[in-house]
Design a protein that fits this description.
The protein has 444 residues and is mainly α. The protein contains 21 helices and no strands. Helix content is 74%, strand content 0%. Helix 6 runs antiparallel to helix 7, helix 15 crosses helix 17 and helix 17 runs antiparallel to helix 18. The longest helix is centred in the first third of the chain and has 38 residues.
Length: 444
């Protein structure tokens, strides 16, 4: 490895460490990711000839500009998809669409509520994404569970179920979105083969946690319905099903039209937005479209978008200098091509550090093969989708869902590690075992 390559790797590692220690440094990880991205590309520009020897000196800088635009185009597809999905969820939430969720799971039995929360979170996460689903479910739980001690257990299960549900859906987690847009997993493949392992990784922890909940809630906890929007119940239900149904339709749209997934998201956003404007037609005069749009867009977490941009573009530098390919070769040599072990370790690592750069790195490390375990929907890519998503449940800081629930419910790192980590780990291993059994039965 050249000195320049080593320097780029050091900058990346320092930035990665600062991102992992965001809770200690108190510096937003998006800022670190952007700095890391620019510094890595700047260093590459100081000695580009070493990496592109076949290109004439006068054309190297122009070539790098084209390379940056290429990687930016790949990243933009993911970012626009996320922004569209987040906006759709905000439309549904701000107009009371998720009241349906609250009314569906409400019950006085603590164990029944736990199973309803787990299943609702699992399936909603596959449609909405694990981060958004976690926020929705915590807000619902606050209206149904008044005891802080009880709610901590429900909140921990929300993290596990959200990560498990996001792992089997091409739109359920940022990492599966990345793999799907890259073309290494397909909608049919990941749903048909990862669904049962993901379900098991949620059911096993839920079964263990149910023994810590006994009895029933007080009658006073069956709170009356609160209308949080000017829309009727029918209008709220229409918005909910349009949003959720539209997100389910995105993979179908991609299959039919062969357009990028973010185009399907924009279609759904346009339809849903138009319907809400029609519903708003007879509201107060000061409820103008401009005010509604500006208020809605201000709720989108742009810092998350900037973080993904910085990470994806920084990883692209490592891909350009050949570090990821070299690292992939080392892993294959060390573990003799055992994809279950390699992806299993990646899953454990994703509970410590962010899974987005881990998956982005793997996408750069391993080429897509025509056949075998590294082919589209091969063992490696499907296990990567599962392990990177579900593995984040083992620590409260291991996923975006965990971090947001940690902030909302004030869950401490120590409490989660003592009470939940081992339970999530058992579920994680159970899912991998089920996937191994599936592959043995299918290809024996």
């Amino acid at each position: 490895m050249s000195t320049l390559s080593l320097l780029i790797v050091i900058v990346f590692c320092i930035g990665y460490l600062c991102i992992a220690l965001e809770g200690v440094t108190k510096i937003n990880k998006a800022a670190i990711a952007l700095l890391m991205c620019v510094l890595c590309w700047t260093l590459l520009m100081t000695g580009p000839a070493a990496y592109y020897p076949a290109i004439a000196d006068g054309d190297v800088l122009h070539h790098i500009s084209e390379v940056i635009e290429h990687h930016l185009g790949d990243a933009a597809g993911t970012l626009f998809f996320l922004m569209g999905a987040m906006t759709i969820v905000e439309i549904v939430d701000s107009n009371g669409g998720f009241n349906f969720v609250r009314d569906t799971i409400k019950t006085r039995s603590k164990r029944k509520l736990m199973w309803r929360v787990a299943l609702m979170t699992f399936f909603l996460s596959a449609i909405l994404d694990n981060l958004t689903t976690s926020i929705v479910m915590i807000m619902v739980l606050r209206k149904l569970v008044q005891s802080q001690n009880d709610r901590l257990l429900y909140a921990a299960l929300v993290v596990i179920a959200a990560n498990s549900g996001g792992a089997f859906s091409p739109i359920g987690d940022v990492t599966t979105i990345m793999l799907w847009i890259k073309g290494v997993i397909t909608t049919q493949g990941v749903i048909s083969e990862i669904f049962i392992p993901s379900l098991v990784s949620m059911l096993v922890p839920a079964f263990i946690l149910q023994f810590q909940l006994k009895g029933k809630f007080d009658k006073s906890q069956n709170l009356p319905k609160a209308d949080i929007s000017q829309f009727t119940k029918t209008q709220r239900d229409i918005i909910f099903w349009l949003g959720v149904g539209g997100l389910c339709f995105v993979p179908v749209f991609k299959t039919i039209t062969h357009l990028p997934p973010f185009m399907g998201i924009l279609l759904v956003l346009g339809v849903l937005w138009t319907v809400t404007e029609i519903f708003h037609h007879n509201t107060a005069e000061d409820d103008t479209m401009a005010q509604r749009v500006s208020d809605l867009l201000s709720r989108i977490d742009l810092s998350t978008i900037m973080f993904f941009l910085g990470i994806l573009m920084a990883v692209a530098v490592l891909q350009e200098i050949g570090v990821l390919t070299m690292l992939g070769g080392v892993l294959d040599t060390t573990f003799e091509g055992n994809h279950y072990l390699v992806t299993g370790i990646i899953g454990v690592l994703s509970s410590i550090v962010d899974n987005v750069p881990l998956v982005a790195g793997c996408m750069g490390m391993y080429p897509v093969a025509v056949a075998g375990d590294m082919a589209v929907d091969g063992i490696f890519w499907q296990l990567l989708a599962y392990c990177a998503g579900v593995g984040g449940s083992m620590l409260i800081i291991g996923s975006a869902a965990g971090v947001v629930v940690m902030g909302l419910e004030k869950i401490t790192f120590g409490w989660y590690m003592k009470k939940i980590t081992w339970i999530a780990f058992v579920g994680y291993l159970s899912g991998i075992l089920i996937y191994w059994i599936e592959r043995m039965l299918l290809f024996s």
